[in-house]
Structures
1.
Amino acid sequence: MWSASMKLVIPKEITANEQRIAIVPQAVATLSALGLKITIEQDLGSTLGFSNAAYEQAGASICKSAKKLYKEADIILQINTPTKKQLKYYSQGTIHISMVNPLTEPAIVQAMLTQELKVLSLAMVPRISSAQKMDVLSSQYNIAGYAAVIMAATHIKQIFPMLTTAAGTITPVKVLIIGAAVAGLQAIATAKRLGAVVTAYDLRPEVEEQITSLGAKFAKLDANNTLAKLCTKSDIIISTAQIFGKPAPTIITDAMLASMQSGSVIVDLAASSGGNVTATEPNKIITTNGITIIGLTNLPSEYAITASNMFANNAVNFISHLWNSDTKQFNLQADDPITKSCLLNLGDHHAGS
């Protein structure tokens, strides 16, 4: 049973190469005003410039022991899925909030449900207007789209914009964006701001207006204008095609890679789910046939301050939606569309079984 004054705790992230944190001082102040008692693990935000004192001034307590933090929690907020070792310290009935994905991580979800935790997945926030301000995936994909272009710019041996100088005219970099969802649209906007000539391709013809509104050309494929030909003409490719909960589709084959110019750069934003490029190696930057292929799986972490602020804002909105201001308790109502989608305890299909 939850305590009279519910205790929200935020541990450090222990996933390899994770620089983001689940809460920032400003978010602590907002949640404290709701009536939540907040405790963070010591030095949670120190690597991002958020001191323990800043959290204390916002209303949080500091705990040195992660084990103690878990044991005393009514609600645990973190970004990544907990490990089985972490779960050992969770108390029965604890509410867990993270980006745990029941479609790709069914075993850990089942372990959490068996332990009688209340599991709320931010990865399952529904795409409805009332949930937009809680949409963690869209927030993080926005950062990933930006980061992909910046990373490509650091690896390509050219500058992006056209320059006319006494030494002659330098032609702009040609960028191809595959997929025009959140990450793809942000990649288009970023590449255009840097001065590139941008072409974008998406299977959905209805996104043409969004693509052209950002200044890119919408690629219409036919026998004379194939994706392979577009790849051959491009200096940089940002590939963003993913299917939620399923392996990413293979789009760029070995044959297509062989036809590309040496010195080209590909950023595969689908690397975490198998990749859109046959040669992609998750969490590695490789060179094959002179082409650099970037398969880093957590690009938002490269911009951890921005990503943490955005995640924290989404989490505050999510928690506020579920919070009953009269009882000072979580209100998990199965008839609420957001709760129904995110609370994994409500149906076996959520747990991937």
2.
Amino acid sequence: MKKEKITFAQRSVILLTVMTMLLFINVIIWLVILCSQKSMGQFAKIIMTIILFLFALGLAMVLRSWIIHPYLDFAGLFKKFNNGQIYREFMDRAGFVFPGMEEVLNRYDKILVSQRNTRKTKRQSEFLALQNQINPHFLYNTLEAIRGDALSLGMDSIANITEALATFFRYTITDTGSLVTIEDELDNVDNYFKIQKYRFGEKLDIIYEFVENDPDICMLLIPKLTLQPIIENAIYHGLERKSEGGEIRIGMELTERNVLIRIKDNGVGIDDKTLAEINYGLEHTTMPSFSEENKSKKGGIALNNVCRRIKLLFGEDYGIHVYSLTGVGTEVSIILPVVRKESEFFYEGRIHYH
């Protein structure tokens, strides 16, 4: 039979009870000594007896109301929590047991909420992946047929853009919940940019401000579809409204624990009020109320979607922040942990950094 350990709280209650009992006994001894004093008058003895008795009674009541009763109350609270009968009441009241306990419980509560959101997002992603894969080969085969007709007619530009479109769809639709290498993400960006250049011509340009074949960077793992949605935002909200077009620059910095990705454009920029709203949304994107509010928003995979997936996978220390000046351009900063092997970081749907 396993022997139960006496907790710190139990030891504290026992110690305080013993000390109070010893003090109570000491009061009784003093009462006996005072009553045996012949020099003290009868009235004085009665007064001293009443005072000491009231002192002992008050001490016992303080012990009961400040120590024993709260201990029994919290013991019952913990028992109900362990039995699964309560949760929120426990989180609201148990923080007053010890200094710092409230912060510990708040952090625990946030972890639970984050894990629930991760599981919910994973189920939604799996559903969407199944829905999108009902018959993707129909799309691929149709695009290949168009490409074949274009080649047979000598229309190489249409054949090339059709091939890029088929590759882009294949990458986007399959395995939406996985981590991929930065190299794969950059290949998808190249494909997407090829499609956009077919529309905008030489008005658009993309520049990589890092060594593209650097294995220390290119082989790192990041959430799939992290870069392309931000490139899309830069084109449609920054560069498309410029008559002379513009350029997008992608830079990366690697530290011991983090990888910082910067995507800059020289587009029209964002005004201060809108920028503050965007960054507030990115900072609070994992909040359930914020998620429900953004479900009604239409469009493709936007900044909030990318940032939310990053935070759900890696935690609140990671995500996206936007910097912008009206008439100058916009920079989107993405901070991610260094992940080299997917199997070392996944545990029950959540990534842990060691």
3.
Amino acid sequence: MTDAPGLLISAPASGTGKTTVMLGLLRALAQDGLTVQAFKSGPDYIDPAFHRAASGRMSFNIDTWTMGAGLLGAIAAQATGADICIAEGSMGLYDSVATRGQSGFGASAETAALMGWPVVLVVDVSGQAQSAAAVTLGFKLYNPDLPFAGVILNRVASARHERLARLGMEKAGLTVFGALPRQGDLTLPERHLGLVQAAEHPDLVWLPGGYPELHAGRLAAAQTFAKGLREHARTRPVHGECGGYMALGQALIDKEGNRHRMAGLLGLVSSYETRKFHLGYRQATLRAAMAGHAKGARLRGHEFHYSTIIEQPDTPLADVADADGVPVPETGSCRGTVTGTFFHLVTAEQD
């Protein structure tokens, strides 16, 4: 789908160091004078910001569960003018949901196959040597039709350890592109990026998310911000996603149990003191219209947060379910011109 050649950097599982490898590759190629187009397989919105910092060029998400062919093609076209594309996978190479979405199941392997990008697998060899080759060979043989370029060994303990791991890969017929030492300071900082600023247009204020639980006191004191939102909402739409939804609510309880007044445009009371992990694809059918989408529209998105709902008294915005169609209680809210959801909208479904 792109004219530029490319690779997809993946791994057997999360936490193996693929983002570190990805960023190193992006910076090295950019410093060599190449125009590098980065992509992120899946809905993760944090890693693309790191990609941009490393490459100097905007990075884009490619997600086969939420996106149809038209949107995937438009995103692939962002590589126009690039010398090479480097994409980062999410979780393990073949990890996905069980129910097919608009173009697939959301696996990084699907992205690689769709775009025609060979896979480079980042393998954490700590605690093993030749055995790592058996695991890697399984990933190559699991889908023989998937182009598999080779591996990068990560967290190598010594020269002897590297030699043994390479021997195993050689025996399995696998190409080793390089090895990275086990190095405690070769890690990324905490990826908690702070509150994202609002996207503001003449007829719409859209709060796309962030981390209001880290800034609850400052938000409560930001009366000019709250006044501006209320004034806008008198005649024009305001929408908040995840952290933006929380900021539009009545109150937010921080991790110490302190209650902070939010903008009050919706009745939502959320708590970071009572934490629960929410992660996954979301499909929603709107019960009421929201900015850019009519009542009855079917939307696709992704939810990722730790906050819980204490009160959600407003009219539900949508019927929301996970990727398998199981309903979830985070329906979102609407009140007048104001709407909010815990899921981040990716696109409307294509008929």
